[in-house]
Specification:
mainly alpha
């Protein structure tokens, strides 16, 4: 009977395999987290690139909108300017008709800019101009809606002017209580800034119309004390004398 000899691997070779396996396991334990971290970092970098591209695209879009709005507004102004020049050469009834046509055309052009570019700075400027035009035409409800929309979305001086527009519409409709309340809000918010000066004049007028000459006098005195160099100071001084005369008469 022939006995088969078993091949015995050298001791070194046999001992190497578990050591290699152990080394491979240790290497995997070290490398795997690193690879996972790099995958996360790569994904984060990719996300940042996508977001940056999105932000860049958004700002490019906003810039393009502003440019288009400015061009549309400039074209509208050009058309109106041409009509005004033509009207200046006319007289009598013909000129009156031309001026009415200018008002209608101005409103139409501004409405177009507001409708297409109302979300831009130029669109807001067009909206304010349109509201002022409606006010001059006696369309106080339409004007007030536009002023209120601007007030809700604006800030700073733009918000103050829009709020004053809302109050002006109340005053024009002889709603003095609502006008005083609105003017007062604007006045208190901008007491030491220029918007407060014309607002103080409007407040004084409302106080006089509602039989409150002392409150009116306080507004005129405020202008003289805090804004003596404003364009309203001379008128405020005259009106203060008139109001003081009324107060003296009433005793």
């Amino acid at each position: 009977m022939k006995i088969k000899k078993r091949k015995v691997k050298p001791i070194l070779k046999r001992a190497r395999k578990p050591a290699e396996a152990a080394a491979e396991t240790r290497l995997r334990k070290i490398v795997k987290p690193v690879l996972e971290r790099w995958r996360v970092i790569a994904a984060a970098v990719a996300a940042v690139v996508v977001v940056a591209a999105g932000i860049g695209g958004y700002f490019a879009y906003r810039h393009d909108r502003e440019v288009r709005a400015a061009r549309a507004y400039a074209r509208a102004q050009g058309k109106i300017t041409d009509m005004v020049r033509d009207a200046a050469e006319k007289s009598g009834e013909e000129r009156k008709l031309a001026e009415d046509e200018i008002d209608a055309k101005t409103a139409s052009e501004l409405e177009s800019v507001v409708e297409r570019y109302g979300d831009t700075a130029t669109g807001r400027a067009a909206k304010y101009t349109l509201a002022s035009l409606y006010f001059d035409q006696g369309k106080y409800d339409e004007a007030q809606k536009l002023f209120k929309t601007l007030e809700d979305k604006a800030s700073g001086l733009e918000k103050a002017l829009a709020a004053k527009g809302v109050a002006d519409c109340y005053k024009a409709r002889l709603e003095y209580g609502a006008a005083i309340s609105k003017y007062r809000d604007v006045f208190e918010s901008h007491k030491f800034e220029f918007p407060a000066v014309p607002v103080a004049m409007d407040l004084a007028e409302c106080y006089r119309e509602t039989g409150r000459p002392k409150a009116a006098a306080e507004m005129y005195q405020y202008i003289l004390d805090y804004h003596p160099l404003s364009p309203y100071a001379e008128q405020a001084a005259r009106e203060l004398k008139n109001v003081e005369a009324v107060i003296a008469t009433k005793g």
